[in-house]
């Protein structure tokens, strides 16, 4: 039973493409040869980034010496680009919290913000057969294998402005599932538990949409798997307990056979006695390969040839994936005003986690022992075959947390615990303080700043979403196998919003207004397009930054397909910003993005939805 309630993920590779309405997608990859090319890592200074007063709570980055001593890569080129001069807005604001909804009805084990309709989709697991919200009426769900009915709600849509909730019916268990948004903004959900493990589900963003479910669509069960979006908009899913394999998600209504499942030895090799390689971190690199991190190892996989083309150095210090449950993200992809590089450099960030035996100590040993979590953060250029980990230390240990890429390109480490492991009642010491990570390209001047704490522990099964107004929606936390109140960490149904440092009321003057009616919201790869802001004459171009953000599917400390891209500004005149769209789907997979205009490091009052496609 301990194994059953723990959950493990092996890498399954799934492509989901389904119908694409008005968009016809090209073939997923435009080359079959290894496309790796080495490039300098550009510094991401946010063009106009905030200086946060540390008040004694800032920690400078400490390079572990993995970079060469002379500040150059092995080919002799500089490993840091020139810094852009700018005037920084000053603030000592450490963020603020607000209770948005007292009872969401469902403890959000999984969450994704749906584009255009600005509603957060949240769901837990049908295995509990209970929640805090009843379905509005019949029919109830038939509990598999029994004659019982489950009349409780396990999936909701929440309006992120008003808090209004719409219950959704779901039949096939979503416990520890995976997902991603397709090119038209639909959620394509894969896997889960029991009757949901081989299921593909679709939720559209059209009014009054309900779940459409396709049980048996996957060739293997996918429980604790990771879903990644490819350059043409299709999906791959990696792993799942007992299945060290991957597959492409089939078109809507079709089913994969076992012949369409690929064995993946890397997942076998990275499997500890207590797993530690479920929910692997999987990212589409800007060269078209997939970066895959499991346990403490990482590779590049060519999804065309199914060949591992490179393995990076081991990241020391413990395990990072479930149940060790560190967090990870891609650092911002920075584009030039007239981008023509064959491959654009990009770095990955991996933070926190636990010693390899933390789950054994917390879950299987009696009395329970809660080992301290990891305090390190490591980053590496994944387009450089000579890439090495650069390791810094956070102000405190963190596991079960999330790495949020903010609209400005800074990273917010939030949620989680300081000791223990993922699992039922297996963690202690809630880490209530978010930590802001402001980084430089060379890593030397990077800095962590401890932000103001929440009063609500967000432990195992917490989630987040970046909102159009640049606040962060925080939900979930359930360390219990069901909905329990009289325990150390009750099942959490409250919903909070966190306002980061850039929402200091004293900086409100810098928040710009996008004139949506005068801006382009349908964009093709490489195309010039314009965004209009309201106060053109008073704005200095050197203080402007435009970013686009891909909405992640978040669960268990993993943020599938989270991606932020800084666009190059080609022209600026009287409020009209002329930009170049990303050149291809390796940089920005097709789909919906939130576009932010930041000024002096302060995001606009509300982002704009844009759809990028071939």
TrEMBL record:
Gene3D superfamilies named among the record's database cross-references: Galactose oxidase/kelch, beta-propeller, Immunoglobulins
Signal peptide: 1-20
Residue span of region Disordered: 58-81
Tagged with keyword Signal: yes
Domain Glyoxal oxidase N-terminal, residue spans: 109-502
Name this protein carries in UniProt: Galactose oxidase
UniProt lineage: Eukaryota, Viridiplantae, Streptophyta, Embryophyta, Tracheophyta
One protein family per Pfam: Glyoxal_oxid_N
Domain spans labelled Galactose oxidase-like Early set: 519-612
Protein keywords: Signal
Species per Swiss-Prot/TrEMBL record: Hibiscus sabdariffa
């Amino acid at each position: 039973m301990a194994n059953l309630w723990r959950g493990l993920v092996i890498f399954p590779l799934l492509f989901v493409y389904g119908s694409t309405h008005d968009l016809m997608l090209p073939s997923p990859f435009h080359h079959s040869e290894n496309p790796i090319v080495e490039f300098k890592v550009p510094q991401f200074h946010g063009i106009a980034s905030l200086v946060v007063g540390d008040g004694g709570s800032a920690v400078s980055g400490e390079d572990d010496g993995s970079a060469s001593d002379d500040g150059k890569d092995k080919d002799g080129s500089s490993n840091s680009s020139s810094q852009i001069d700018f005037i920084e807005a000053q603030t000592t604001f450490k963020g603020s919290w607000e209770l948005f909804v007292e009872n969401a009805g469902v403890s959000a084990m999984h969450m994704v913000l749906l584009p255009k309709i600005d509603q957060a989709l949240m769901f837990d697991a049908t295995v509990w057969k209970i929640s805090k919200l009843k379905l509005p009426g019949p029919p109830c769900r038939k509990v598999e294998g029994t004659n019982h009915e489950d009349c409780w709600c396990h999936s909701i849509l929440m309006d992120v402005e008003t808090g209004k909730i719409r219950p959704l019916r779901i039949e096939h268990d979503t416990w520890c599932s995976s997902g991603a948004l397709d090119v038209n903004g639909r959620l394509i959900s894969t896997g889960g538990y029991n009757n949901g493990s081989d299921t593909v589900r679709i939720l559209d963003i059209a009014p009054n949409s309900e779940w459409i479910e396709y049980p048996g669509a996957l060739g293997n069960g996918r429980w604790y798997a990771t879903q990644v979006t490819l350059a043409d908009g299709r999906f791959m899913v990696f792993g799942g307990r007992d299945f060290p394999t991957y597959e492409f998600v089939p078109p809507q209504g079709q089913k994969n056979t076992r012949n369409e499942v690929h064995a993946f030895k890397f997942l076998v090799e990275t499997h500890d006695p207590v797993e530690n390689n479920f929910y692997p971190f999987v990212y589409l690199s800007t060269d078209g390969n997939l970066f895959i991190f499991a346990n403490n190892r990482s590779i590049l996989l060519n999804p065309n040839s199914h060949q591992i083309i490179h393995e990076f150095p081991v990241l020391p210090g413990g395990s990072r994936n479930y149940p060790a449950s560190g967090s990870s993200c891609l650092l911002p992809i920075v584009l030039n005003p007239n981008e023509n590089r064959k491959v654009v450099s990009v770095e990955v960030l991996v933070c926190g986690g636990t010693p390899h035996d933390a789950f054994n100590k917390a879950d299987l040993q009696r009395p329970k022992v809660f080992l301290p979590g990891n305090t390190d953060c490591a980053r590496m250029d994944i387009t450089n075959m000579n890439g090495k980990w650069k390791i810094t230390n956070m102000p405190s240990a963190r596991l079960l947390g999330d790495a949020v890429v903010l609209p400005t390109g800074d990273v917010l480490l939030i949620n989680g615990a300081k000791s223990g492991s993922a699992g039922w009642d297996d963690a202690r010491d809630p880490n209530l303080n978010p930590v802001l990570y402001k980084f430089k390209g060379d890593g030397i001047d990077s800095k962590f700043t401890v932000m103001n704490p929440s009063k609500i522990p967000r432990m195992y099964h917490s989630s987040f979403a970046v909102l159009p107004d640049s606040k962060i929606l925080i939900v979930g936390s359930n360390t219990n196998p069901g909905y329990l109140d009289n325990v150390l960490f009750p099942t959490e149904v409250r919903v909070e919003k966190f306002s980061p440092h850039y929402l200091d009321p004293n900086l409100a003057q810098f928040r710009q207004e996008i004139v949506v009616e005068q801006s382009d919201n349908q964009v093709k790869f490489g195309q010039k397009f314009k965004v209009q802001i309201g106060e053109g004459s008073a704005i200095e171009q050197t203080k402007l930054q435009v970013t686009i953000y891909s909405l992640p599917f978040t669960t268990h400390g993993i943020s599938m397909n989270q991606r932020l891209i800084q666009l190059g500004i080609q022209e600026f005149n009287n409020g009209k910003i002329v930009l170049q769209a990303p050149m291809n789907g390796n940089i920005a997979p097709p789909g919906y993005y939130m576009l932010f205009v930041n000024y002096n490091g302060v995001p606009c009052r509300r982002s704009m939805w844009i759809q990028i496609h071939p």
